[in-house]
Write a structure and sequence with these properties.
single chain, mainly beta, five-stranded antiparallel beta sheet, 1 helix
Length: 185
């Protein structure tokens, strides 16, 4: 029985942390210039009603090379979703990064990841929706490898102002008998 999805990390490799390039300062807008801040606000509870034939421009994207993107459905399901993710550098021609047909979001606020087959660095991105005729999107993310992937996890050290309150020896937990508090033998 296989109850969990397969890992995105290949056997023998370390997991790659990803971060969203549509963070602070990123903008989503329709071709007519109407802003769609709900699509980049990191809140799946805010959604935008859209229709087929709509193009969403993504600008002021963070520095990085996205290898995946996610779409999050709004208040309802999406059946037979069709779209194209495109990008360009400067004022160059648009390049297709990914194209999907017949994609279903079977529940409200469902986030689905999609790979970008040939990642590269671009200045602008756009998502062209072809179908269905009416849908809601809550979020769009462009995910790039984190700059912290090659750094070892930081060691926890409480701020100096907290050290007096935890300097007394604490009992070990049953979950991790090797866990020790600062100052504990």
């Amino acid at each position: 029985m296989d109850d969990v999805p397969r890992s995105l990390t290949a056997r023998g490799q370390r997991p790659q942390l990803l971060h969203d390039l549509l963070g602070n300062g990123a903008q989503a807008a329709l071709a007519d210039g109407r802003a769609l801040p709900a699509l980049v606000d990191d809140d799946a509870n805010t959604a935008v009603p859209l229709g087929g034939g709509v193009t969403i421009a993504l600008s002021h994207v963070g520095d990085g090379v996205p290898t995946m993107y996610t779409l999050t459905s709004g208040d309802g399901t999406i059946r037979g979703g069709e779209w194209t993710l495109e990008a360009r550098a400067g004022n160059g021609r648009w390049v297709t990064l990914d194209q999907r047909r017949g994609e279903d979001f079977t529940s409200a606020r469902q986030t689905r990841p999609f790979r970008i087959a040939s990642p590269s660095r671009y200045a602008e991105y756009r998502l062209r929706l072809a179908a269905p005729g009416r849908l809601q999107l809550a979020e769009i993310e462009l995910l790039a490898p984190s700059p912290y992937n090659d750094v070892h996890a930081p060691t926890f050290a409480p701020p100096r102002s907290c050290r007096p309150c935890i300097s007394q020896p604490q009992p070990r937990t049953t979950a991790d008998p090797g866990l020790r508090w600062p100052g504990q033998p």
